[in-house]
Amino acid sequence: NAGVTQTPKFQVLKTGQSMTLQCAQDMNHEYMSWYRQDPGMGLRLIHYSVGAGITDQGEVPNGYNVSRSTTEDFPLRLLSAAPSQTSVYFCASRGSTGSGATNEKLFFGSGTQLSVL
Amino acid sequence: AQKITQTQPGMFVQEKEAVTLDCTYDTSDPSYGLFWYKQPSSGEMIFLIYQGSYDQQNATEGRYSLNFQKARKSANLVISASQLGDSAMYFCAMRELGGGYQKVTFGTGTKLQVIP
């Protein structure tokens, strides 16, 4: 069981370049989300999705696009990379059945370290 | 709006001692969930423990327990018998459960270092 798979693990971009961070989960989770982690700021929510075809903005959505065409995949697109987007990005998913920790626990990918020069 | 505050940027604890990591939260929703996650130096996020606002008892998972004080809006993590492998960043998080709210908000984290 692979869980949540993120690719790539590392990426260096030049300012203005675009790229897509991939996220896939094999647990049939309805909820998927993207976070960025910056020193001293914890994890901040970028975008999230509650099912195929449904996405919504989080706390820091500017400069990022998402789409959800399948239950399994939730890619994050950087349209025109900026140095301020240098960060570690995490994809996370959770199920929608059960209760308590079973339903609420987030499963995280291993992260993508992105540097924008 | 939900908010999580972790006021301890870093802490030290002697191996085999207990340690408490502080977390306070703010919400107007009577139904919410509180979490703790661990992030070792390798970078992965590991779920530790969950407490629902209506749970009658404080959550426990092995050496981890969540000291939930609803009136004070605090959800402190207690680690008993600290081990060297407990050295990591620890994040407190919350989700408001009413109204289908889907966002999980994280605190800024506490870096715990266990001293041999």
How does this structure look, described?
The complex is a heterodimer of chains A (117) and B (116). Chain A starts with a strand and ends with a strand. Chain A has one helix and eleven strands, in the order E-E-E-E-E-E-E-E-E-H-E-E. With 117 residues, chain A is mainly β. The relative contact order of chain A is 0.32. In chain A, strands 2, 4, 5, 6, 9, 10 and 11 form a seven-stranded mixed β-sheet that branches. Chain B has 116 residues and is mainly beta. In chain B, the strands form three sheets. In chain B, strands 2, 5, 6, 10, 11 and 12 form a six-stranded mixed β-sheet that branches. Chain B has a four-stranded antiparallel β-sheet with strand order 3-9-8-7, with no helix packed on it. In chain B, strand 10 and strand 11 form a beta hairpin. Chain B is globular and about 45 Å long. In chain B, 34% of the residues are buried. The mean pLDDT of chain B is 93. The A-B interface holds A 31, 33, 35, 40-45, 48, 50, 56, 58-59, 88, 90, 92, 100-101, 104-108, 110-111 and B 4, 6, 9, 33, 35, 37, 43-45, 47, 49-50, 52, 55, 59, 91, 93, 95, 102-109.
List keywords for this structure.
heterodimer; A: 117 residues; mainly beta; 7-stranded mixed beta sheet; 4-stranded antiparallel beta sheet; 1 helix; 11 strands; globular; B: 116 residues; 6-stranded mixed beta sheet; 0% helix
Give a topology summary.
The complex is a heterodimer of chains A (117) and B (116).
Chain A: E1 4-7, E2 10-13, E3 19-25, E4 31-38, E5 42-51, E6 54-57, E7 64-66, E8 76-78, E9 87-94, H1 101-104, E10 107-108, E11 112-116
Parallel strand pairs in A: 2-11
Antiparallel strand pairs in A: 1-3, 3-8, 4-5, 4-9, 5-6, 7-8, 9-10, 9-11
Chain B: E1 3-5, E2 10-14, E3 19-21, E4 24-26, E5 32-39, E6 46-52, E7 60-61, E8 64-69, E9 74-79, E10 88-96, E11 104-106, E12 110-115
Parallel strand pairs in B: 2-12
Antiparallel strand pairs in B: 1-4, 3-9, 5-6, 5-10, 7-8, 8-9, 10-11, 10-12
